[in-house]
Structures are given as structure tokens and as C-alpha cells.
Protein: Response regulator transcription factor
Amino acid sequence: MRCLIVEDDPRIAADLAGALTRAGFRTEQVADGEAAWFRGGTEDYDLVILDLGLPRLDGLSVLKRWRAEGRAMPVLILTARGSWNERVEGIDAGADDYLPKPFRMEELVARARALIRRASGRINPVQTLDRLVLDLNRQVASVDGRMLNLTPLELRVLVYLAHAGDRVVTPTELLEHLYGDEDAREANALEAVIARLRRKTGPGIIGTRRGFGYYLDCAR
Amino acid sequence: MRCLIVEDDPRIAADLAGALTRAGFRTEQVADGEAAWFRGGTEDYDLVILDLGLPRLDGLSVLKRWRAEGRAMPVLILTARGSWNERVEGIDAGADDYLPKPFRMEELVARARALIRRASGRINPVQTLDRLVLDLNRQVASVDGRMLNLTPLELRVLVYLAHAGDRVVTPTELLEHLYGDEDAREANALEAVIARLRRKTGPGIIGTRRGFGYYLDCAR
DNA sequence: CGGCATTTGTCAGCGAAATGTCAGCGCCGC
DNA sequence: GCGGCGCTGACATTTCGCTGACAAATGCCG
Structure:
């Protein structure tokens, strides 16, 4: 069970992480909206705890963006006590639950568990990027309607590029995403993956910008 | 959209009925636990609003009885403000959501809508997935009309996969579902179960996507 | 309580798929 | 033309999932 905590107050974040870790979650933290959006969009979490007041990009916008991109993981919003309009907005934006501050850690954990129970088996919409279609439910991709038989690593690359949109992604960034910083690989490992991917997708899907990185050709 | 309101205070019940009717629900009301249990158990509702403090039979017991009988409609519990332990109990009893009193009617409606959105497509007592038929009442499964003599664990795997639809389920997720996080098993335990299952179902039912997980072949 | 049958977990080993590494080459941009 | 980045194919290695046999746990019945 992997959980992303989005909270800018380090004290609260630490409390949350503590309670959830004790409850058996693996927790990761980010403290601003931009980072939250990116992490939640590229990694797979079983649960997200989302504070609304965030620097750089507020929580509701983060949530809306995730849902617009088809990310369907359960999200529990932390709201200020009594701000019922915030709650309604949150639900409309695609939140699965909210918890008014202050709250008991026991309750947070109970609701987290319930959310996950409820959310398991939820459907992730498919992403269509011109010729490329990504279906995270079935873990498959297709180009021009032709199924690609992708390996896990290959699919992860494709999903990451898709999330980046038409932005050029540096090899370093991709390497860091695929493997952590701890067990790094040769830069060539990535090139090999890309090569195998291209052999399956055919030309016109993954582009190279010499000296910069890779991008999704069909996303622009 | 048919909604059952279980509430013994006539004023609150009237308010609820008003708001929900304006929101497009057909509402029906009962004021005590016995009546609630009977109505909810014999009629089909899209949503139940359930107060916990009820005469004759308290709300939690009603809910537990419904769930024990296999009634799966979404239930929104009304709790007294701040009684967080009551909320936890409610969730454990099978509630889909709760709302602390007092609350705004706008919020109730928003949450009711969200609940129904979430609950639509919930499992049917007898599921037919192409060649595979699951009967949860009798706890049996059959393929091409041929009965499978499944063990409890095997059936649980099949039901979970069926619930996931055509989604690919990771071994981790399945393991966590079958056993809790507390008494974990070797990953191989699952593989053994799958193997035995496949021997009984024959080929073409449970598929593997190497590196991703398992899926129901006949659900796609 | 004890024995039997069924269910379930563990182990070791195998084969195949996925991934990493390497060496060499082509091609882009200067 | 040249230097180097990035691509490619071949090969090595690692990981993953399946299988069959056995052991442990569970449950049932007398």
C-alpha cells in the first residue's frame, strides 16, 4: 500500500506519515502543488492525502488535473473545520472523501482503509494521444488500433512521456523515474528500452531531440 | 433514483425529503429500525440515508443485517458531530459514507450524488462473464456450464478478479486482499492458488501479463 | 479425542521472458 | 570531415512465473 502525502506543513506531514506508516502504508511526501501533480501523475499510489492550501498550485487544481488526465486513485482531502463549501467543491473536483481539521489519527487511518477498500477495482479511463492509446486498466498500449505487447518497463516509459505531454524529457529524468537514484543504470539501458519500444510502436511515436532528450511525437 | 430516508425526528426527515426531492430523488421514509430493516431488505433503493439513533433497532444493527444479507446499496450514515468512534464503527459495519450533524443540505445532496456515482455498477449476486459464471449466493462458479469444485480461497481469487473486470490485478494487490498485511505469505502461495485454479477452470479464463499481474481473460 | 480428508503453504527447480551490458556503427551538427 | 551522441543487434544476466511434490494446517466425523 503506497500512499502520497501532500502537505506543506512539515509538522502535520510528519504526523500523517507516522500514523500511516504504523498502519502499514509506505508513505511518500511532497510539499507543493506542482510536485504533487507530477508525482501523482507519474507514479501509482493506492491513496493520496491532499491538503488544499498549497504553494505553487492549490490542492483543488491538482486534483482536477489528475482527474482530467484520467488518474483515478482515491484522494482524501483535508479541509479546515466548517468550510462546507470547500468540501462540496472537493467532491465535485473528484475527491473521494474529506476530513475536517483537526482530526484523530485513528479516524484518518480508518477512512483511509475504507477508501482503499471502496476504490479497489475502480476503472481508469483510457488516454488517447492521437495515434497512441494507453489503457492503464489492462496495462496495454496501442498505436493506430494495433496492440503493442509491451513489457512493464516499456509501458512505464510511455506513460511517463505521455504525462509530460509535448515536453522534452531528459534521459537523466527518465532514468531517475525508472530506477531510483540508489540503483542507477548505465545511460545505455534506457537507450535499449527506447529502441525496443520504437521497434514495437513503429516510427512517429517517440521522438529524439539530440542533446536534450525524448518526447512523444504524437502529443504535439 | 429511489432513496430511503431512515430518520425518527419528523422535522429532520421532512427537511431531508425536501432537499432530496428537489434534487431529483423519489424519497420514501421510515422512522424506526425494524421498519427500515424490512424495507431496505425487500425493496431496491439507489441510496439509503440512515440515522443511527433509532427506536426498536439501532441504525448500526440495521446496516449490519443488510450487509449480512448481501444488500449492497450505498448507505450514507448521519452521525452526531464529533463522535468519531461512531463513524469508524459505521464504516466497519459497511457504510459507504457518513455526514456529521448538523450539516448543510447542499452538502448532503453533493455527497449523495457522489455515492451513487461511485456505487453504480456494483456487483450482482450472480455475475456472468462470458464463459464464467459466479454465483455468490451459492458460492459456486462454473465455466461453460460445467461446475467447478472450488475451494474458498480459489473462489475468493476468482471473485476479486471478476470484480476488477478487465483490469490487470497485481500479485501484491491480490495478496493483500487474500491475507491482510499482518499475516503475509510468500508470493509463491498466490502462484500456487492460481495454478490450482487454472487446472480446474481450464485455459482461457485466467490470464497473466508478465510483470504486471493477472486478469480475467473472459471479461474482455 | 484421534484419525482421515481437504485445503493451503512452502520449497526447489525449470524455462522463458525481461532487462542490462557491450561493441560497433551510423548519422547529425558543427 | 570529424567527433560524439545515440541507435542497433547480439549476448549475458536477472527476474518472474509455473509446476510438482511435500509439509503443515484446518476441519470433519465417528
